[in-house]
Amino acid sequence: MEKSHIESRLRQMQEEGTRFRAGVEIGKDISWTDLRARYDAIVVATGSTVPRDLAIPGRDLDGVHYAMEYLVESNHAVAGDGVQNQITAEGKHVIVIGGGDTGADCIGTAHRQGALSVTNLAIGVQPGEDRPDHQPWPMMPTIFEVQSAHEEGGERHYLASTVEFLSNDAGEVRALRVAETEYVDGRRVPKSGTEREIPADLVLIAMGFTGPEQDSFTEDTHPQVTDRGSFRRDESYESTVPGVFVAGDAGRGQSLIVWAIAEGRAAAASVDRFLMGETVLPAPVRPSDVAIGL
Question: What is the pTM of this model?
Answer without folding.
Answer: 0.84
